[in-house]
Design brief:
alpha+beta; three-stranded antiparallel beta sheet; 3 helices
């Protein structure tokens, strides 16, 4: 037999290595495939996967909507699965004295429900405050969509509220009546105005701090003038005038906030009186 050349031996060695590599790759691939099949089977039968039609996300508290020429906020939502009811509370913290909407209505839709017909009711309080109640919820459903529509003489606006029961904590609650919603709206006005007073006081404190800093700056500038030329003094005087003007503006704003707070306090007292009168009926 003819002796193989060195090149032939190297080629044979290379082919042998390639055969071993492919054999190892095949074994590794079959092992990986078996592991993945077992893993997916466990996940599927164990309920790890969630169907895509279950992933509707509930509307979060604090969501805002442009309704009736104003911005309404979802301030509360409740789900009572045992009694098959839900409630959504919307409020406009800057509502005008008179509500502009001539009609407010709500409609509800369900995803993959068991078919029972739900009932929606809108209860309105004062100053852009309303509660949407949904009764007779289906025994089973994957998501709920409530469309709230406000109609005026010139336009119609709509807000969409979503609720996924799997993302909510169910609590038992009594259905509110018209008087209770009115009382809640009055209390909401008081809470909102009290918060505004607190915010105004914080602004007043900030204005006072800035005025004090301006006074200190003016004192430093006046002290520096002893070591300045006539031209430099003129420039410093211009800076001092600007700082003083800033302080006057801050003081004026602080005074306006004080008047606003007094007006808010007067409004709160009258709302409290109405709250007592309505609650005593």
């Amino acid at each position: 037999m003819k002796k193989k050349s060195r090149l032939d031996r190297m080629r044979d060695r290379w082919e042998e290595m390639q055969i071993r590599r492919r054999r190892h790759e095949s074994i590794w691939y079959l092992g990986y495939l078996a592991v993945m099949i077992i893993l997916y089977a466990v996940m599927i039968f164990g309920g790890v996967f969630i169907q895509s039609n279950d992933d509707t996300r509930s509307t979060k508290i604090g969501a805002t909507y442009a309704l009736d020429r104003g911005n309404y906020t979802l301030i509360e939502k409740q789900l009572d699965s045992k009694n098959r009811r839900a409630a959504f509370t919307l409020a406009n913290p800057e509502a005008p004295l008179v509500d502009q909407a001539t009609e407010v209505k709500a409609e509800v839709e369900f995803k993959d429900s068991s078919g029972e017909k739900a009932k929606t009711t809108v209860l309105q309080g004062e100053r852009g405050y309303l509660v949407v109640v949904v009764e007779n919820l289906p025994e089973s459903y994957k998501a709920m969509k409530v469309n709230v529509t406000m109609n005026t003489d010139s336009q119609s606006t709509e807000a969409t509220l979503l609720m996924n029961p799997k993302q909510e904590t169910t609590v038992s609650f009594q259905l509110p009546n018209q008087t209770e919603v009115l009382l809640a709206s009055l209390q909401y006005q008081i809470t909102t105005k009290e918060k505004q007073i607190t915010d105004n006081r914080q602004l007043q404190s900030e204005n006072t701090r800035q005025i004090q800093e301006n006074d200190e700056k003016i004192s430093r500038l006046e002290e520096d003038k002893k070591y300045q030329t006539a031209a430099e003094k003129q420039e410093t005087d211009g800076t001092i005038s600007q700082v003083k003007e800033s302080s006057r503006g801050l003081a004026s704003r602080r005074e306006a906030l004080e008047k606003e707070n007094q007006e808010l306090k007067n409004q709160i007292e009258l709302i409290k009186k109405k709250l007592e009168d309505v609650g005593g009926k």
